[in-house]
Amino acid sequence: MARPLDADGRPLDPEVLALPAVTSPPAAAVGPASGAGITRWWRRFARNKGAVFGLAVFVAVVAMAVFAGALAPYDPLAQGVGAPLQTPSLAHWAGTDSFGRDMLSRIIYGARIALVVGILAVLLALVVGVTLGLVAGYYGGVVDAVIMRVMDGLFAFPIIILAIAMMAVVGFGVKNLIIAVAVGFIAPFARVTRGDVLAVKEEPYIEAARLVGVGSLAIIFRHVLPNVLAPIIVQGALRVSGAIITEAGLSFLGLGPPPPTPVWGSMIAEGRNFIVMASHVSTLPGVALMVTIVGLNLLGDGLRDTLDPRMRQ
Amino acid sequence: MLRFILSRVGQTIAVLFTVSVIIFALMRMIPGDPVLMMLGDDFTQDAYQRLRAQLGFDRSIVTQYLIWIGNILAGDFGDSYLNHERVSRLVFDAFLPTLSLVVASVIVGILIAVPSGLIAAMRKDSAWDYGSMGFAIVVYSMPSFWKGIILIWIGSVYLGWFPAMGYVHPWTDFWPAMWRLALPALTLGTFFSGLVARIIRSSLLEVLDQDYIKAARAKGVRQAALVYKHALSNALIPVVTVIGLQFGALLGGAVLTETVFSIPGMGRLTVSAILNRDYTVVQGTILVGVFAVVGVNLLVDLTYSFLNPKIRVT
Amino acid sequence: MRADIEPVGGGAGAPWRSPAGGDPSGDLGEPVLDVRDLTVQFSSEDGPLRAVDGVNLTVRRGEIVGLVGESGAGKSLTAEAILRLIRCPPGRITGEVWFHGQNLQALPESALARIRGKDIAMIFQNPGASLNPVFRVGDQVLEAMALHLPEPRRALRERVVDILGRVGIPSARMRAEDYPHQFSGGMAQRVMIGMGISCVPSLLIADEPSTALDVTIQAQVLALIRRLARELGVAVLLVSHDLGIISQMCHRVLVMYAGKIVEEASVATVFAAPAHPYTRGLIDCLPRLEGTGPLAAIAGTMPGLRAVPPGCRFHPRCPVAEPRCAEEEPEPRRLGPDQAAACHLLGP
To answer: Do the interacting molecules here have an ipTM over 0.90?
Structure first.
C-alpha cells in the first residue's frame, strides 16, 4: 500500500503511475522494429477488442478529416441548402441547423479542426515538455528545481482554465487555440520525461559516453532521448483525446474558431437553443465527438498495455 | 508524521507562490494598458498617473509583483473593469454555487463509483465487470457540456422531472436547491465516477491478492467481512489521493457545466469576464480557483497520511 | 477416532498411511488429519493442470510432519487446499480431507470458516505481509479469538496480551497497540503463531514459517513450534524446502515432486536410507562439513505444470532411470514399517 511518490517525495500523477521506469539497455527499449517484432506486437494489440475499436475509430476520423471534401454531400458553409432545423431525413442524414446548413457535412468537416488542434497541441506540448524534462532531469540541481517548480505551478491549473487564461493573453484564432490547449499539457510531459531521464541517467552506457568525451547535448539527444521516447509516445497518444475535449470545451464556450467554421464544440453550443424541437443540432455533433474520444481513449489504453509489459489490467 | 505535514505545507506554499507568479505574468502579458482599462470612462491624465503610481507601474516588475501579491493577501483583488465592483465580492458570490456543485458532484460520483468498482472487482472478468468498466469509460469520455445537454433533454424536456437551469443555495432552500442541482451534479458526478470506479477496481483487485487477506480467511473471517472490513479499508486509501488529484479536472468540468445549466458560479463568471476582456475578474477567479485546487490537494495528502498507519505512526 | 483410519494394508493410498511409523516411543496420539487423494487442478487454455496430484498424508496428535520439495512442487498448494484457501474457480479441489470425523471438502463455506482459525490454524511464509497494515496488531489477534470464542471482548483483550507475552513479545500490552509495520519479521511471525494458537487448535499448518527470517530468529520460531507440539499436543504440518529444518523439527517427512508424493518416511530413515532417487539426490545436495569435493546437484529442473513428462515425473532427471520409467507411473511401495516410496526400481 505504498504511496506512490516520485524521487522528491512528491505524489505522482496517476497517468505517471502507468509508465514503466526505463531500466533496460538501449537495444531492448529502442531497436528498429523488425518484421517479427511488429507482427508480434500487433497480435498482442489485436487481442484487446477495445483497442482495435479505438484504432478503427481513429482511422475513420482521420479519413473523415482528410477526405472531407469527397465525403461531405454539401458545402458545410452553404446556408439554405435545406429548410432550417430539419430533423434527419434521406436528403440530409444528420438534418439541418438553424441556418439551413447540412449537418452531416458540417460534422465531417468538424473532424478537421478537432484533429488538427488536438494533434498539434499535443505535439507542441510534447516538444516543449520533453525538452524541459530532459534538461531538468539531466542537469539536475538548480535548473531542475526551478523547472520542476514551474511545472508544479502549471500542474495546479485545471487545463481548461489555463487554456482560457492563455487565450486572454494570445487572443483568439486557430493558431492561438492550439497554443492555449498545449500549455496545459506541457507539465505532464515534462514530469514524465524527467522521471525517466533520472532513471536512464544512472545507466552505465551514459557514464561510458561521458567518459569517452561525448558532449552533454549529444548525450541528451542521442543517448538519453531514444530510451525515454517510447513511454512518451504512449503518453502523447493518451493525451490527444484530452486535447480534443479541451478544444471542444473552449469552442463550446465561444472561444474557439469563429463561426461559420464547422467545429463540433460550437455546433453543440448553437444547438442548445433548439434542444426542445430540434435536438439533433446538439446531439449529433456530440455523438461524433464522444465516439472520437472514446475511441482515442481505448486506443491509448491499448497502446499503453501492449507497449508496457508490466502494466497490470 | 509531523515532519510529513510540515514538508507538505512547505511544498504547498512553494506551489502557491509559483502559481501566483504565473498568474501575475500572464496578466502582464495581456496586450493593452491595464491602467487605462481600469480607469475606463473615468480617464483623466491625473487619475491615470495616480493609479499608475499606486499600482507601482513606474517601478520594477518585482515591486509590482510585491504590491500585487500584497493586495491579494489583504483581500484586495481590484475592481472589475466593467462595473467597478470589487472583484473579491464578485468572486465570493460566485464561489459558493461552484462549491455546492462540486461537493454534490463528488458525492454523486462516489455513490456511483464505489459499488461499481466493487462489483467489477468482485466479479472480475464477468459481464458485471465489463459492463461496469465499459460504463465508466463511456461516461468519462463524454464531454461534460454535451452530457449536460443530453441530460437536460432527457430529464427536463422529455421526462419533465428536473428544471433545466437555475440555482438556489442549498442552505437557503434545501429541496428546490437539490432539484436544480440534480442534473448538473449528475453531469459532473458521472465524469468523476468514471475515473474513480476504475481506480477502485484495480486497487481492490490488488488488495485481494495480498497475503493478509489469505491469512484473514485462514483465521476464519467470512467473505463479507473479508471484503468490507479487511480489503476495502486498504483499497480505498489510494482512492483518497486520486480524488485530490482529480479535483482540478473537476473544477475544469464545473466551468463548462455551469455554462450549460446557467449556474452563477465561478466558471460562468470567468468565461463572461474573458469575453468582456474584464481581466481583473479573470485574474481573481483563476487565483481563487487554482488556490482551491492546491488547497484541496494539500488536504487530501494530509488525510492520506492520517489514514495510512505507516505514515501516521512513527 | 475413526476406526478405518488405521491401515490394514489394503485400499488406495494404504502404503502411505502408517501411524506406527516414526514413533518408536509410542507417545504420539491419534491421527488428527487424514488427507486422501487430494488433487488441485487449474483450468487453462491447454486443459486442466494438476498442481497437486493424488496426495495422501496423515498427521497425528503431537506429531510434526514435514512436507518437503523444491519451489513449485505443490507443497504450499497442498497446505492451502486443506483449508480450501484456493480460489475455485479457476482452481478445483477434489479428494477428501478428514478432520475430527468430518470431510472438510464436503463442508459448506460457513462451516469451514468456523473451523479455520479455531481447530485448524495456518501460518504463512511472509509474516509481515500476513498482517493487515491498517489494523492494530492486538485487534487482529483479538479478531481471531472473537470470531470463535464466546467470551466477551473485554475478557479476550486480556488474553491477547497474555498470548503475545507467551510467544515471547516483550512489553506485550504496549505492543498490542502497535501496527504491523512496527514489528520485525521475527516478531510478526510470533504474532501470527500467537494468533494461530489463540483458540487452541488441534492442527497447525505452517507454510515455510521461517524462510523469510534471519537464521537466529528462525531457530527461535521453530523452537516455539516444537514446544507447541510437545507441550500442547498440537499436530503440525510443516511445509518447507529446507531439509535441514525438516531434520531438526519433524518426526516424519513426505517428499513431494511435481505435484506427487514420491517418498514418505520417518526422518531418521529418510536421512539414513533414502529410497527414492529424488530423495537421494536431495540429500546428496546438502553440503557436508567433511570432504572438499564439488557440491552435488540434481541435473535439470522440475517440470512446469504444462510440461509434465509421461510415466514417472522424475525420470528425465533420474540417474538410474529405466525404459519402464518413461512409460508407467510408479505406484507407491511399502518398504518397511516407516517408509514408502513410488519408484519402479524398488520392487514389483
So the answer is: no
